Hints:
By secondary structure, the chain is of the alpha/beta class. The chain has helices spanning 14-21, 34-37, 43-54, 78-81, 112-117, 145-150, 192-202, 233-246, 266-275, 284-304, and strands at 2-5, 26-29, 65-71, 89-94, 122-128, 153-156, 163-164, 175-178, 181-184, 207-213, 248-257. The strands form two sheets. Strands 2-1-3-11-10-4-5-6 form an eight-stranded parallel beta sheet.
Amino acid sequence: MNILDLDHSLTGQASIARLLDSGxxxxxxxxxxxxxxxxxxxxxxxxxxxxxxxxxxxHNGPAPEIFFVGSGDYHHxxxxxxxxxxxxxxxxxxxxxxDWVHFAPRRHCGSWVNQALKLPNIERIxxxxxxxxxxxxxxxxxxxxxxxxxxxLQLFPWQHPPSKVWGRVGDGAGxxxxxxxxxxxxxxxQDWTAFLDRMIASLPxxxxxxxxxxxxLASEDAATNWDQGQMRLSHLxxxxxxxxxxxxxxxxxxxxxxxxxxxxxAFKRWEAKSDQPPAERWSxxxxxxxxxxxxxxxxxxxxxxx
Length: 306
């Protein structure tokens, strides 16, 4: 396993410290790039990150390569993990936000899905769990409804009312259009086991990559820099187990730790203050949930991918 140390959010957790101390994971020191990469990045800084990533000791064997990344402000780093995939892959994306915005900078934690869709070996992205208001009037907010219409992106909110749209998007695996509303197939209303079976059976590839932003989880299971969703940790663990049982998982990345705001410029500070809940909402006790959730993930990974 790889611990990308961008913001100190991981190395202070007991579960991650034990992993590093035992030699079961290696730390990549990226603290010099962290503030420049956080929230969004210039293309130059993103390339520097990708170069540093390529210098890591290479993973050998059939087990997937696993990356713990830090704050969800770094989710736009996921495409760097996907550039050299050896075969077509379905990307399974757990998140409280769709991260599909056209209006944001190219390397932004809210727009990275669009960059991933351009990669040659990404056949489909399936986004699971959003509850956020990004799905209210998604066209006005720059959502990539074109990808939804083409079917290369499927989106299944955990719980969200219908979304108003203009023009024809059509029906998809995760929604039906009725006049100017997209009615979502909310996961909270479905049998989770049966849904997972259907979703996995419909994937166009045998290989999958799993990307997780822990803000998809309810606040009982995680404390992040963003608003929390409603999925429980038990649902996430079951989904990973089901994917591993039916598909070949070739990689996993996990973000969504809590990191104190530390941005490289004033505009990033303003954007974070505008978009994110106040950091003070979490106590030190709240933040211990992240270590416990990471411990549950680590134990599952070591069970499934010895």
